[in-house]
Amino acid sequence: MSRPLNFVMISPHFPTNFETFAVRLRENGFNTLGIADAPYESLSEGLRNALTEYYRVDNMEDYDQVYRAVGYFAHKYGRIDRIESHNEYWLELDAKLRTDFNVFGYKNEDMHAIKTKSQMKEIFRAAGLKVAQGRVFHSDEEARQLAQELNFPVIIKPDSGVGASDTYKIKSAQELEAFFGYRHPEVQYIMEEFIDGDIVTFDGLADINGNIVFYSSLEYSEAVLDTVAKDGDMFYYVPREISPKLVELGKQCVEAFKVRERFFHFEFFRVKQTNELMPLEINCRPPGGLTIDMWNYANDFDVFNEYAHIVKENKFYSHITHPWNVVYISRKANKNYVNSIQAICERFTDRIISVQTVPGIFAKIMGEEGILARTETIEQMREIIQFAHAKQ
């Protein structure tokens, strides 16, 4: 009789909707071994019931503590089979632990390629894909010269960073000089030409051989930077129809970055003038927010369960037909909307999935409340968005 697979879950309680990974892994016979700095009593009852054992450390940033926790699990349960957080913040911690305990998955030497935007560019180029021009700069003078080469406006962001934080659209030499005054001195930045286009993503799950077993996409009402700058309404959605060109490019990227038995989230520019797709960056984890739940609603399946199947037996059972568009519609507390949440739910009762409350750290982008809805057509979706965002 084969032993249960030992799956170490780093920070299994965050974000809350990722707790289901522990539930489904446990249901599929895994030893689910959680490590985090949260008190055990603070974990939800569902998560506590889904964990085989939980090891609390005082500080997740102290590698020795986390290393000792994994060592304890290895001593008690035997060889560790997987270590995963599904979280951008812990990518390097996951890789370091996998390296030290010789566990399948990305190791230390893989991190440069999937964490730094400059190295991502090199891999995209090597795969024959066109990327935005730009590079890392190491001094103010080098930045001035690079801005002259690229022409304003330019985008400046950390070479290794998450999301849109610490990202700037610089429109003039004066704004560049101002940036030098408030940038973080210890952060290495990259400067890129400004691409006038929308962001579209190619997301999904690959099996242990790098075959894509599930794919999806995200479309956004506008860039996150613009939403934050004007404190505006936003929406984003999982579309039913995904362009064959995006799928083709996405497959090239999955192969180029050797994505194996894990989720991926590739961002592309869709250039406004030409409609061509240009790779922007890779994230080797599921998309954030409620996206992973939106996949389930869009496809009437359980991606958490399918992930457990992939890790356990490298099989994906669901038949994906993309029957629904699923949209997240933000609602800001400081806006004077015509229609209440109740009115929206009553009018579109057969299409509303749920109303979500958003934690404060995300509310600037996602709104204090969010409406999840699904529709068969884009026209139906736009009708709900317009009704929800109508102002007095």
TrEMBL record:
Determine the domain of life of the protein's source: Bacteria
| Stored PROSITE patterns | ATP_GRASP
The keyword ATP-binding is annotated on this UniProt entry? yes
Tell me, what is one Gene Ontology molecular-function annotation carried by this entry?
ligase activity
What's the short name of a Pfam family annotated to this entry?
A: ATP-grasp_4
The protein's UniProt keywords, in alphabetical order, are:
ATP-binding, Ligase, Nucleotide-binding
PANTHER family, from UniProt? ATP-GRASP ENZYME FSQD, FUMIPYRROLE BIOSYNTHESIS PROTEIN C
Q: What is this protein called?
A: Carboxylate--amine ligase
- Naturally occurring in which organism (per UniProt): Gallibacterium salpingitidis
Organism placement in taxonomy? Bacteria, Pseudomonadati, Pseudomonadota, Gammaproteobacteria, Pasteurellales
